[in-house]
Every structure is written in C-alpha cells, then in structure tokens.
Write a structure and sequence with these properties.
By secondary structure, the chain is an alpha+beta fold. It is 31% helix and 28% strand. The strands form six sheets. It has a six-stranded antiparallel beta sheet, sandwiched between helices. A six-stranded antiparallel beta sheet has the order 14-13-12-17-16-15, sandwiched between helices.
C-alpha cells in the first residue's frame, strides 16, 4: 500500500504551460480567430459562440482600452483579467498576450490560466527554491550509481563546497561517519541499495560524524532516503534529506543519562560500589574514563577530614565494576587543577591535562568535579576524554556536576551506613558472650555469622548460664529486624534472661515473665508513638541437669533444638513452640528429655536453616544430617553445619550453639534422706565429714559441716516430712538441702541478746554463693564452697 496515495496528483507544471493553459488567437482587430479546446475547458464557451466575435465580450468588465493596449503591444504582456464564463460567473485569470511578428489573420496569441491555480504553483516553486537555497534540511541527489549529482545550500555549507564532490561516491562525503540507529544496517551503501531496489524509503536514520566544514565537533544527523523516478517510473537515482539534530540528540542523551543515574547511582549503600556506579553510568557517553578519589576516612565510614591540604592523602578508585577495583594513593600539588577544584568546591576544566609524570594515558580533556554534600567535600571525580577530542562544553559540565552530586549523596549515605553498621556490629558483639565458661555438665561450641552488611546487623543472641546444683541454662533467641535498635534490644533481653535464670525459674516460668516484660515495653512504645521495631522476639530456654541427665526446655516461637544421641540417631521435638514474646496469648509448656551421656544438642536461629532459596524444613533436615556425625569434635561439627549454607551474602544472622552433654559420675554425688528429727543433724554432719574425707576434701570439713548443720536444722525446724541432703563434688563443693515447703528462709542480722537467727548469716560467710530454688514439690536451699 502506498504511503502517500495522492502523490500522483502532485503536478509541478505551470498552469500557463501550453499543455494545460487556455489558448486563443486574436486578429489585428481584436476578434477571436482561434479557440482551443483548453479555452473551452476553462471558460465553457464552445468555439461557435466566440469565433469572429470581439474578444472584449469575454471580459466580465469592459476595459476596452486596456485590452486594445495589451493586443497592440510589440512584446508579450501579462495581466490579471476577470473573464466571463458560460455559466455567468466571473473567473479571475492570469492572461499573457504574445504578439506575432507577421500580422495577418492571427495577430496575437492569448494564454490564460486560473489565477488561484497559478498562485498555488508559484508557492510550490517558491518552496522548492527555499529548500534549495534557504532550508536547514540538507538535500543531496545521487544517481543510480550512488554518486553525487546535486546538493542544496545546506549540504553545500556542511561539505564546505558541494562542487568538489560532484560525481564522487556517497562514502566520500563523511569517510569516518557511522550510522548509530539499531533498526537498520549500519552500512550506508546497503541502505541506499535497499531504497534503489525496493523503492521503500528509509526514514529517521541517526548518523554520527564530522562535517568537512566543522571537523573538530562531532555532529548527529537524522537522515532519510527516497528513490527518484522519471515520468515512466524508471529510477533516476535517490535523494537524501538530512537534518542536524546534534543539540536535540545530546539533550536526549543527557536526559537518559540522568534517568539511568537516578536508578543506578547510590543504590548499593557501599562506598566503593557507588564510585563504580558513577563510572559505569558516565562511560562512554560522557567520558572515556571516570576516576574517583576519596579520603580513606570516607571509605571506612568515618567523617571526611577537614582542615587538611586539598588533594593530599586520597585513594584513587579505578575500574568500572567492583571486580576491577584497585585503590592506590594519590596526591595533587597545590597548583594543580585538581587541588583548585577541591579548594574552591567548583568544577575545573583542563583541555591540556597530559603531563610527563602522569602514569595514565594522555587525555585530550579533563573535567574535575568535587564531590560535595552538606557543605562537606567528600572527594574528587575526574572525567577524562582520550579517544573523544571534543572538550567538555558548558552543558556537559553541568551534566557532570549533577552526576557528581548524585554520586556524592550516594557515597555519603554509604559512608553513614558503613559507620552505623560498624557501630551496630561492635555493639552486638560486645553484648554477646565473649567466651562461654567451662562447665562439667556440658561441652560447648558456637558460631555466629552476621548478616550481609547491606541488610544490617541482626538481633541473634545465645548464652550459657551456670546454675546451682552443677546445672546449666542454655538460651538462644532472635529479635526481628536489623540495625542498632535490634542489637540494643537483643542486649536487654539477653541480660533479662540471665537475670531471670539466676532466680532458678523453670523454662516455662522464665518465658512467661519475659513475655510480660516485652509486652509491657511494646505498650510503652505504642503510648509514646515510637516505633516498635525489634520487639518481635523468639526465644528458647533450656536447663540441663548433669546429675540425672534431665533436660527441660520451653520455646517462645523459636525452632526447637535438635538432639543427636551417642549413637548418632537424630530426634526432633514433637511439641510445637509457643507464641513469640510479647503476644501474651497462650501459655508456655515445658518439654522434658532424658539425655544420655555424650548426646549433642543443637540450638540455632532461623538463619542457619532458612534462606531465600531454602525453606525451613529443608534446612532443619540439612542440619540434622550434619548432627549424625556427632562423634566429631564440636568445633568441626559447627564448621560442617555452616559450610552447608548457600554461598553468598546472608540475608539474616546465623547463630549455632552445639552442646555435648555430660553426666556426673555416681561417685561424685552423695544423697542422704533424713527424717524430720532435730537429733539427726549431728548424723548429717558426720556423713558430710566422712564423704569429704573420701573425696580428699577434708580441708573443707569444718565449713561444710557448718553449712550442712545450719541448712538441715532450718529445714527440720520449719518443714514437714523428710529432708534430703545432697553433696556434689564439681568445680566446687555443692551442698543442697531439699524439703517439701515452699517458704524460703531469709538472711537477717540477729541482735546480741538473741539465741538464734545467725544460721544463714554464717552460711553466707563461709560459702562463695548460696540461694534457693523452687521445685514442683518444694524448695532446695544450696550453697557452694570453693575447693582449695
């Protein structure tokens, strides 16, 4: 289908052309002696109506004298006359009178055309003349061999004279030019061949090159090609129309560059990557190379230095991608344009930057732009051109400044984030245990793997808490969220768990109290209108007793531990965890397990078993498989477990605490059940002294007998039913007295005239720790004596 279906109606013949105009012949007396069919078409009069009659009768008015003057002239004359049509209307026409040399029957030839049609043709002619002489659109005609035939004034100006290119092939016009449009072949010869062969025009091709009239500056043209045919439809060649769109093209390029910069620069929150993003955006569209020089303090996340000499103690960032990064020290002399840019906080252009001492390849032009934010100078960005000889123009300098501003904001945000992340990491690590105390009850190993720096420090914690009776408390938890707030919340909760654990609360009771504290803190935050981020908390707390191998644990929304027995068989808890802390919806339940000597228990956070590509069930199965190697050293098991994590940055903190249980040998524990009889206190002292002698601890006999005597006496005096005395030889000597009453004795200072009330005071003086813990059937009062 033709693109222009009415193109065949376009006619550039003059309306006064003899093939189109109305023609009549007048004799010497002004009578019509000849009347062509074209005259009949114009006015409608048939020949028989006008032949032999005065021509003046064909005028709408009767300017007889003027008509006589036109017919009597000795040279051709033209005039605008109103002619009378057959239907009675007047037609304004352009009429030319041409006298004949040999006057006879035919004295004057008259040619007439519609004046409006003539004016339209003259406008077309003026348009063609304007395209040839005044238009900014370049027009060039090529013959069928693609050789230059003609060019208008615009083409003549761009080529610095079209005459020298007449007869030469098209590729001679811009020998170093190239098409940069992607929707057509980049070969101009192929494009012209396609137009010649098919007749299909090629429109809007973007061509980049240097015009002979302006060889210094690179231009961009929008080019279109059309085939030329004669009246028979035979190809005559083709013509090219070109429009210089350099300014518009560069404006569009700058706009697209800014759009790309908005998406790319500063998205990583990493100082080094932000510098790479600036280079990646600006090269090669704006510069051939971009260098970024930053003080070490900015790279490390600290405040940029102030008061130092500009251009000193900087690190240069090389490469367009993070993988290519290398940093090298750089220093600029005070008189250099780089130092001037840093000192004045303004861009400085240098069109002759090469120097013998410059280790980099020679550059035609450099632009130095300071990286500014909040009135602070973060560093310097250098835009270099080596293959492009054009200097940086005013618009390009403005573009470079805007890119540098975006990069400066991104670098400053990355610097601040690096500083906050480092502070949060230091805070978190200071709040986590630096080392776990050695215990006879368990052997432990742990790993803490922080999340990727772009995510932020998380709120994982773990702890081992020595308890009375050679028992240990084991806890692991996770605060939802990342950053300083999560780390601070983690520190508060870890301290709270440790405090509650030292009260000898069972796991379910401890989590219940912790749940109330978290809920209370959430309410306070809601009342204050502050964020409650970081208060989504999961926690697991367990108590292991090495005397009987009994382990009791409870969970607040936290994954239960995985247990591997001495034979390598792995078991998962069948009890679902309770709700996370702070919800206060459902009660927490204790789970009791009997662990064989040498069992391995894995406490972990969800970062160990869950990631972007692995669900938590698959992760738990993976960890359970690692625990089948439970006879390996715990440190090796930790490494095996973390080595199964997917490579790459972690989206969440990963905390793993492995515990290998031990049972105290029966010869290290002595139990004695005593009826509620005060006379048996002496028997308890005797049994204690004998047992200490068996253990080789006779040096503790006096103090131990004193502690046992006071504790047993109090239990027999205030309790009902039997009293149980237990002695445990561990890292210290443990003396425990249990009864069936939940009322605990209190330490007080007795007056001088009182006979009693000094028992617990004496116990406190001779022991290093003492206290009371409650059980479901009563209480246990305990005291620890240091072994010399």
């Amino acid at each position: 289908m033709d693109r222009f279906p009415n193109a065949a109606n376009v006619d550039f013949h003059s309306p006064l052309d003899l093939s189109k105009a109305a023609v009549a012949v007048l004799d010497a007396d002004g009578l019509v002696s000849g009347w062509a069919s074209s005259a009949q078409r114009l006015l409608g009069h048939p020949p028989e109506d006008v032949l032999g009659l005065p021509a003046a009768r064909l005028l709408a008015a009767t300017p007889g004298q003027r008509l006589s003057a036109l017919c009597g002239a000795h040279r051709p004359r033209s005039a605008v006359l109103d002619l009378r049509c057959l239907d009675g209307r007047a037609l304004r026409a352009a009429v030319t009178f041409s006298p004949l040399v040999n006057r006879g029957v035919a004295a004057t030839v008259v040619v007439a055309a519609d004046l409006e049609a003539l004016r339209g043709w003259e406008a077309q002619l003026a348009m063609l003349q304007g395209l040839a002489t005044e238009s900014s659109v370049g027009l060039t005609i090529f013959d069928t061999d693609k050789r230059v035939v003609w060019g208008n004034a615009s083409t003549d100006m761009e080529l610095a004279g079209i005459a020298q290119y007449i007869g030469r092939p098209a590729e001679d016009l811009f020998p170093e030019g190239e098409f940069i449009s992607r929707h057509h072949s980049p070969d101009e010869d192929q494009v012209m061949e396609h137009v010649m062969a098919t007749g299909e025009p090629v429109m809007g091709m973007h061509y980049r090159g240097r015009a002979p009239a302006d060889p210094v500056r690179e231009h961009v043209w929008s080019c279109s090609y059309h085939r030329l045919v004669d009246a028979r439809g035979e190809p005559l060649g083709l013509f090219e129309e070109s429009l210089d769109i350099t300014d518009r093209y560069r404006a569009q390029e700058r706009l697209s560059l800014l759009v790309r910069a908005g998406k790319r620069i500063g998205a990583s929150l990493d100082v080094r990557r932000t510098a790479a993003e600036l280079a990646d955006v600006a090269v090669p569209q704006l510069a051939d190379e971009v260098l970024v020089d930053l003080p070490p303090a900015v790279i490390e996340g600290r405040q940029p230095p102030t008061g130092s000499a500009p251009g000193h103690n900087l690190l240069r960032m090389h490469g367009r991608t993070p993988e290519d990064f290398r940093t090298s020290a750089v220093s600029y002399p005070p008189s250099s344009p780089q130092a001037l840019s840093l000192a004045t906080s303004r861009p400085v252009a240098d069109d002759s930057p090469s120097a013998p001492s410059d280790p980099w390849a020679a550059a035609h032009s450099c632009l130095f732009v300071p990286l500014l934010t909040r009135d602070a100078v973060l560093g310097l960005a250098t835009f270099r051109r080596s293959s492009n000889p054009d200097p940086f123009g005013p618009e390009e300098q403005t573009l470079a400044v805007e890119l540098a501003e975006r990069a400066a904001v991104g670098i400053d945000n990355a610097r601040r984030y690096t500083s906050q992340h480092a502070a949060a990491l230091v805070l978190q690590r200071s709040l986590l245990p630096q080392h776990l105390p050695e215990q006879s009850a368990v052997e432990v190993a742990y790993r803490y793997l922080p999340a990727d720096s772009r995510v932020g420090v998380g709120g994982d914690w773990f702890d081992l808490i020595p308890l009375s009776g050679a028992r240990v408390g084991l806890t692991v938890g996770d605060v939802v969220g990342h950053g300083v707030h999560a780390a601070a919340t983690m520190g508060r909760l870890r301290a709270t768990v440790r405090t509650l654990a030292l009260l000898d609360l069972d796991p379910a009771e401890l989590l219940t109290r912790l749940d109330g504290l978290v809920a209370q803190e959430s309410e306070h935050r809601a009342d204050d209108g502050t964020s409650a981020e970081g208060l989504g908390v999961t926690c697991l707390y367990a108590i292991y007793d090495p005397v009987g191998g009994r382990c009791v644990w409870a969970s607040a929304g936290h994954p239960p531990p995985i247990v591997s027995d001495a034979g390598g068989s792995v078991a998962l808890s069948g009890l679902a965890p309770g709700p996370p802390l702070g919800l206060g919806s459902l009660p927490y339940e204790n789970v009791e397990l009997s662990l064989a000597d040498g069992s391995v228990v894995a406490f972990f956070t969800d970062g160990v078993v869950e990631d972007r590509h692995t669900d938590i069930d698959t992760g738990i199965d993976r960890l359970a498989h690692v625990l089948t190697w439970q006879r390996c050293p715990l440190e090796e098991l930790c490494d095996r477990a973390l080595s199964t994590l997917p490579p790459g940055p972690q989206a969440d903190d990963a905390t793993l605490l492995l515990v290998r249980t031990r049972r105290l040998d029966s010869d290290r524990v002595a139990d004695l059940e005593l009826p509620s009889d005060p006379a048996l206190v002496a028997h308890a002292r005797t049994v204690t002294e004998r047992q200490l002698e068996t253990w080789g601890l006779s040096a503790l006999s006096f103090n131990a007998a004193l502690v046992v005597s006071e504790l047993v006496t109090n239990s027999i005096r205030y309790a009902t039913g039997p009293v149980v005395l237990r002695l445990i030889r561990d890292r210290c000597l443990l003396c425990e007295v249990s009864d069936k009453v939940h009322t605990a004795p209190h330490l007080r200072r007795a007056r001088r005239d009182e006979e009693g009330g000094r028992g617990l005071f004496l116990v406190a003086q001779v022991s290093q720790r003492w206290g009371t813990r409650y059980t479901s059937s009563g209480k246990t009062i305990w005291a620890e004596l240091a072994i010399p």
